[in-house]
Amino acid sequence: MRKPAFATIFIAFVALLLTSCNNSLKHQVETINSQCPIDLGVLGEVTKVDLDGRTIVYHVSTNSNVLKISRLEDHINDVKQGILLNFVDDKTSLTQFIAAQCNIRYEYTDAQTGEQLVVNISKDELKNAEALVGNDMELSRRRIENFVATGRLQLPMQVDEVTTLTDIFAEGDNVGYVYTIDESAVPSDTLNQRIGVLKESISESLKHNDLSMTMLIDALAKDHKGLIYRYNMSKSEKTFDITFTPEEVVRIQLQQQQ
Q1: Backbone angles phi, psi at 79, to 5 degrees
Q2: pLDDT band per the 50, 70, 90 thresholds, residue 22
Q3: Strand runs (DSSP E) across the chain, as ranges?
């Protein structure tokens, strides 16, 4: 039995559309690969991208000294949210992925241990994320929440011989880092005398920090929030705060962009 002419035309159109979409996906993969390695801050770096059917696969190499994959396994949604927020910033790629109706898969591999974590993102989840495009306030709010949630998964973190990062918090109009200082190595009086110098050093480092911190500063500036570095002394339990007001955060953001 012969197919009606309109059915034949429709089938041919679908076949042409699928071929066009596949070619588009291949082109996007080639473009992304030309940019690799892509820095993801504390999450490592994208080493390559390939195509599995209609799924674009990002291969990410991580460093267990900075991020332990095992700590992420029970927090897949937080990791996924962070990925989606990054795609919202990359409006061109997000639009192209949605048009191609593709899925995304991130495969994280610890470069030292070989441990792996897979995060799948559906085409519908990409489409839902598109609603945040242009909504800077909501995007910044969600980015700050995600930064705190995923940052806490890495704690405690030994920063140097005397300093341990023990908490990250969002409180009122501030986001804060909490450190514990080994007071046997750095007396509280010494730290108190050097607060001004320490703030200047932190301010300078923020201007040239990694991708994660750059994105946080941008989110804080847009949401008009400040940044606190809180130092707890290990013996006397004295606490010293170094605070960057929302206005100071905006100045740091502008300096990062220069």
Answers
A1: -65, -45
A2: low
A3: 38-39, 45-52, 55-62, 103-110, 116-121, 157-158, 163-171, 174-181, 226-233, 239-244
Of the candidates 108, 51, 102, the one whose C-alpha atom is nearest the C-alpha of residue 79 is 108
- How far apart CA 41 and CA 14 sit, in angstroms, is 41
Rounded alpha-carbon distances, angstroms, from residue 14 to 10, 92, 124: 6, 25, 21
pTM of the model: 0.80
Two structure tokens written together for 53:
């059917």
Work out the angle between the directed axes of helices 211-222 and 246-257 (0-180°, nearest 10). 130
Residue 67: other Cβ atoms inside 10 A:
20
Q: What is the DSSP letter of 4?
A: P
Query: Which residues fall within 8 angstroms of residue 38, CB to CB, at 6 or more apart?
Result: 32, 45, 46
Distance CA(171)–CA(149), nearest Å, equals: 13
pLDDT tens-digit readout, 37-56: 988 877 789 999 999 988 99
Helices (H), ranges, 36-168: 76-89, 91-100, 123-129, 136-152
Q: Which tokens in the block code for residue 211?
A: 């991708």
